């Protein structure tokens, strides 16, 4: 959440890395290290402006005083991936948007763009119904168990 009001509690459940995606033949696909300046030279395909991915991209490029161009704004990551696959531009998507069978080049850009956390949003001072409260407890307990397992495995 970029603009969380003070009366909101956020409990992360899953976190995903931002990934730069290009078609396999793109010049950036052959580079081992990709900087923001490198990315800014190419047209971007992003979700619409009102979505958080667009705002994250805008924020990062502005913070680094870099110009960038958005060629297309489209809804849906499958559509974005299809346009990238066709060579119409490059994009930044979260890792959960990529599948094993995507014929795209993907590189982590987490050193520039923030990781995205998905989770439970609650209003402070509000009581949930018993079933909703139990559901939230189950989600958070599962997340805590997964985190502890990952720490024990060193991940």
Based on CA inertia axes, which overall geometry fits?
globular
Distance between termini?
A: 25 Å
Question: Number of helical segments?
Answer: 4
- The Cα radius of gyration reads 18 Å
Instruction: Look at the helices and sheets and give the structural class.
Output: alpha+beta
pLDDT averaged over residues: 89
Strand fraction: 25-35%
Helix content: 25-40%
Strands of the widest sheet, in order across it, are: 5-2-6
Could you name the ranges where pLDDT drops below 50 across 5 or more consecutive residues? Answer: none
Secondary-structure element order, N to C: EEHEHEHEEEH
Largest sheet, strands/sense/barrel? 3 strands, antiparallel
Could you tell me the number of beta strands?
A: 7
In short:
The chain has 155 residues and is of the alpha+beta class. It has 4 helices and 7 strands. It is globular.
Describe the structure.
This protein has four helices and seven strands, in the order ββαβαβαβββα. The protein has helices at residues 36-40, 52-63, 77-85, 130-153, and strands at 8-16, 18-22, 43-46, 69-73, 91-94, 105-108, 116-123. α2 (52-63) links the parallel β3 (43-46) and β4 (69-73). It is 32% helix and 25% strand. It starts with 7 loop residues before the first strand and ends with a helix. It is an alpha+beta fold. A three-stranded antiparallel beta sheet has the order 5-2-6, covered by helices on one side. The protein has a two-stranded antiparallel sheet with strand order 1-7. It has a two-stranded parallel sheet with strand order 3-4. The mean pLDDT is 89.
